Amino acid sequence: MKKYSIVLSLLLLIFSCFAVRMDEQLVKPDSLNIGTPINMKLSFSEPVDSVNIAIPDTSSVLDFNATEIIEDKDGVTGANIYFAPFETGQVILPAFEVESWQNEIPEIHNTRQYTLLVQSVLPDSGAVLRDIDGPVKVNLTVFDYLLIIVVIAAIVLIIWLLTKIPKKEYKKVVREKPIIVIPAWETALSALKELKDSDLLKNGNFLEYYFELSLILRKLIEGFYNFNAAEMTTYEINEALAELKVEERLEIKAYLQSCDMIKYAKQMPSMEDADKAYSWLYQYAEQIKKIDLERKAALEKEKQNA
């Protein structure tokens, strides 16, 4: 028992060293006035699958204009949050939570609280954004190298301990867990309900709203047609659907292209467009649900007749 406690402690130590970290940087001009734009830059130590930013309610002193999600081919690497004060004196930018998802595992990050001094009610048209904190050069110390050696030694020790566990005892520890497969349409409908209950459209956050719609559709296609749609471009998805002879291929292509135009070309849609985009995806998920249930019913009938 003591041996397993040591192994568990070492594993927790190693996993904590590789957790996703979030850095923040507040970018603002030297002199703040009402309407002066401010940008909070968020960056992650490694790309994540998606992020959810809980913007605080500061409607009396701050106006959050937009949130821009930054991503590359590996995933989401950060975000830009744009806002501006509209009250003079000391204005508090409260701390808020940023939830990142990596391999369907959430991790909560917290920003710092900032106190801003707004000097005038006049618009500051000549304000130039500047970085308060520049890049910091990392210099490894002897302690850092020692930590790396300790981690490597811990991994070697864990492997050695695992090889010493008797086979019979190992079989007693391992328990087979039932594999629960959730249909892709069920996951999509659940995600759509959460998106509808969110405040993204109410806050005018069309970029993140359409990012979530695009991701839900990609995962629905991936789960139902069994190819890695979540990691593919719109063009690649269209080519894969063409090979599978999917009837809705052109509709899916047009839908993903409209989402891409909003995410990357920054074309702002109307609330009516957003509602239509949501309705189409919901109806398509229901259509997939119907096809999947009919397919399962036919297979069950074949088993009974066999």
What are the salient characteristics of this protein?
306 residues, alpha+beta, 5-stranded antiparallel sheet, 3-stranded mixed sheet, 8 helices
Number of helices: 8
Specify Rg, calculated over alpha carbons. Answer: 25 Å
User: What series of H and E elements makes up the topology?
Assistant: HEEEEEEEEEEEHHHHHHH
The major beta sheet can be summarized as: 5 strands, antiparallel
Rounded mean pLDDT score: 81
Task: Tell me the overall shape.
Answer: flat
Alpha-carbon distance between the two ends: 51 Å
Q: Low-confidence parts lasting 5 or more residues at pLDDT below 50?
A: none
The proportion of strand residues reads: 15-25%
Give the spatial strand order of the biggest sheet.
Answer: 5-6-3-1-11
Provide the helix percentage: 40-55%
Derived from helix and strand composition plus strand pairing, the structural class reads alpha+beta
Number of β-strand runs: 11
